[in-house]
Amino acid sequence: MSRKEREPDLLQEVYSTGLLVGLLVDEELARAGVSQQLFSFLGWIATLQPVTPGRLAAETGLPPTTIRDYVRRLVARGDVRRTPNPSDGRSYFLALTPSGQRLADRGWPAVVAAYARVARHLERPPAEHLAASRELRRAVKEALAETEGGQAVPRRAQSSRPSREVR
Description:
This protein has helices spanning 9-32, 39-48, 53-60, 64-76, 98-119, 126-145, 155-158; strands at residues 80-84, 92-96, 147-148, 151-152. By secondary structure, it is mostly helical. The protein is globular.
């Protein structure tokens, strides 16, 4: 079987693409004078706010311990605030502070610049790639949720279960 015919290479391509995207966005953030430290994680909070750490884990694939560390650091530097979750006393909601929103707003043009650099080299419309990426992310999350300790997880339980880190 030739290298081009190996469909499982999809995962290697996506993994490497993620690393390259990180390099490209970091380059644009540096050019804009915006700290790259936790910028992507801050972007997830900006997109989903108010959001619980469990939802962030499910969306990003980061383990809960990493989420806690990132939240602690963002709260300490004043970019994120925690508020109690009235429906779950053990949980809390996260939202950007005005400082965090300014940071997200300052960095967004760098993300747009990185996107523009990529978009001009695509052979298909960007919307097609976005739809395929979202489908693939959903499929990977579902594949991770299929088993827990070798036991099949009922489909309805999958949506609330955080994803595992894949790196």
